[in-house]
Amino acid sequence: MVNQGAPGGPDRAVRTVIGDIEPAALGVCDAHDHLFLSSPQLPGQELSDPEAAAAELHAFRAAGGGAVIQWTPYGMGRGAAELPRLARESGVRIVAATGLHQAVHYPPDVLERVRSGLAELFVAELTDGIGDTGVQAGLIKVAGGFHGLDRHARHTMEAAAEAQHATGAVIGVHLELGTGAQDVLDLLCGTLEVPPDRVILGHLNRSPDPTVHRWAARTGAFLAFDGPSRAHHATDWRLPDALRALADAGHGGQLLLGGDTTTAGARSVRGGPGMPYLLTRQRARLAAEVGPELVEEILTCNPARAFAARWRR
């Protein structure tokens, strides 16, 4: 079953790097990816080349893509100043993120600098813009740990919840190896009272546990299956079964797909799958297995609902 329903609504908008748009204007959407990214955990594989990012966007556009949601948060080389130009030149809608990743992705001094004013930072980047770029973020990105939440994750999610309540923005959650969904939802939607439909759980494909998937779906959260198969990741070959089971249980309207390109070598312009893989390989395979109607819902209508917000500031 595919959950039908109008994407967004008359008082909702998606906040892109060149301004707010009607949700339906997103088009075919890569719901989790990266044009720019740097981390001490990925030395020598930084996504830092604007022209490579431009080439990747053009390849995605040529494959039928309309929008990319960049989940790169604060302090990880978001390339915010480049994003408006890239969006205009490629014709691809781009949504930028605020938020904070796991502590291992930052030098200690960066974390110390923002720790006491994290919620205020998130709100400022959603409303006033990222630094002096004027580019407003349209998503709050945070991260859990492996099968649990450490003190850093809890602090970051508390700040994200405060910013969500202040602005209406959606919170995207990196689940480490796809685990910890229950802990995340207990904290965000239970203790911190974030509406479940304002939470996106990322990387569920990396832990293909149908029991957890169904439980998470019943809360009302969005479920993101993002990134093609890598070593020891049971992703592509189990993806049709996971999507079909959730759709048959009535949760088709909560499903999202993304590419999650995190290293320079993974770009399509460098010989990797990159952003186009979602449309040049996964879309046709999934349509054959679960039906084109569900795939269309996942790539277009669902992102329009997930990333649209009733912006309060």
How is this structure best described in words?
There is one protein chain. Helix 4 packs across helix 5 and helix 9 packs across helix 10. The strands form 3 sheets. This protein has a 6-stranded parallel β-sheet. It has a 3-stranded antiparallel β-sheet with strand order 2-1-12. Strand 9, helix 7 and strand 10 form a beta-alpha-beta unit. It has one domain: TIM Barrel (Alpha-Beta Barrel). The protein is α/β, with parallel strands linked by helices and 313 residues long. The protein contains 10 helices and 12 strands. The longest helix has 17 residues.
Instruction: Give me the Rg, rounded.
Output: 17 Å
Major β-sheet, in short?
6 strands, parallel
CATH C-level category: Alpha Beta
Under CATH, the topology can be stated as TIM Barrel
Order of strands across the main sheet: 6-7-8-9-10-11
Number of strands: 12
Topology order in helix (H) and strand (E) letters: EEEHEHEEHHEHEHEHEHEHHE
Fourth-tier CATH superfamily name: Metal-dependent hydrolases
Structural class: alpha/beta
The number of helical runs is 10
Secondary-structure arrangement, i.e. CATH architecture: Alpha-Beta Barrel
